[in-house]
Write a structure and sequence with these properties.
two-stranded antiparallel ribbon, Histone, subunit A
Length: 96
């Protein structure tokens, strides 16, 4: 994959970022380095490794899933709304 100004502009648009003109060349260079590193991972022999392979034998600590029913949570949330109507957020219409 070649990273050029066109691709960088597309990434900029997708990420909602604005990249300054003087930083564009540096960003392209850094993205190319990242891709080169990822290409190196393709050279690793992973035959015989489980898809669940981990360097640690420890398991994630799980917590008990306890239902918490708070009948006033909507009231607490709506207190922070800039505009509300009845028990709903009131927002500007965005789709015609």
């Amino acid at each position: 994959m070649i990273i050029d100004q066109k691709l960088l502009s597309k990434l900029e648009n997708l990420s909602y970022l604005k990249i300054e003109t003087e930083k564009r060349a540096e960003i392209i260079f850094q993205l190319e380095e990242i891709l080169e590193f990822v290409k190196n991972l393709n050279e690793l022999n992973t035959d015989g490794l489980s898809s669940r392979f981990s360097l640690s034998d420890e398991h994630a600590t799980l917590r008990e899933d306890i239902a918490n029913i708070d009948k006033n949570i909507n009231v607490d949330i709506l207190k922070h709304a800039p505009r509300r109507e009845d028990n709903f957020f009131f927002v500007a219409k965005i789709i015609e």
